[in-house]
């Protein structure tokens, strides 16, 4: 295995390229300059081949696990400028992008704020906002006054002025930070039709904010909404492919281990799609338990 072969596998593998990922993590010091150069080329638009899509997907996750601050600027640029972000990153935007951004941040909030305030993918901007909130609480990149001001400014000025996952992320971030003074802003968002109650309501806000207030580190609210550092890229991606228990539900060897890509195509052709992505926090859980989704499988 070498850098060229690892990149080839990242761009062509139908299944998770575990061997290449393990090698990359073990040889990060020598391999990372090439990886970062490839990610920067992708962010600049110089290389947008199908293979490059797959490479960017896996490199973003590896950089997240390795806390690679050199990936911070290109990833923020991709959030702000890449119209094809959902194509190559898929539901990883909501699942792992916040944790990736938390880990690669170098402490400078400007690239993250530029991504949040851009006209880019709304879910990715929301992921960036949740990462900013986590970093404000865990690392103090913004104090509470500055973070509150940022949320209020976004509430007034940011788009879209229509229902959007971005506003759900805004509300979740405010709640996870324990900002009770912004609770009524969530009510206003709902009144204006920017948030649907099935996705996030005042009860959700209070539940999450209560967790935040009761945690000495102030991070329990973020944990409740699934925002945490990405610690193990391979395990996370394998959990998507095989389910949380590590078993392949489809029992199909041709599809086993594929993630974010579809069964017949390589990684570059189709994003990972969470089958529960359209289920609201307050909807009945699809498992049939009779509980709300947020109290059942979402929590799990």
Automatic annotation (TrEMBL):
Bias-annotated ranges (Acidic residues): 245-256
Pfam families: DUF1186, SEC-C
Disordered: region residues: 245-290
SUPFAM superfamilies, alphabetized: Sec-C motif
Protein name per its UniProtKB record: Uncharacterized protein DUF1186
Originating species: Roseiarcus fermentans
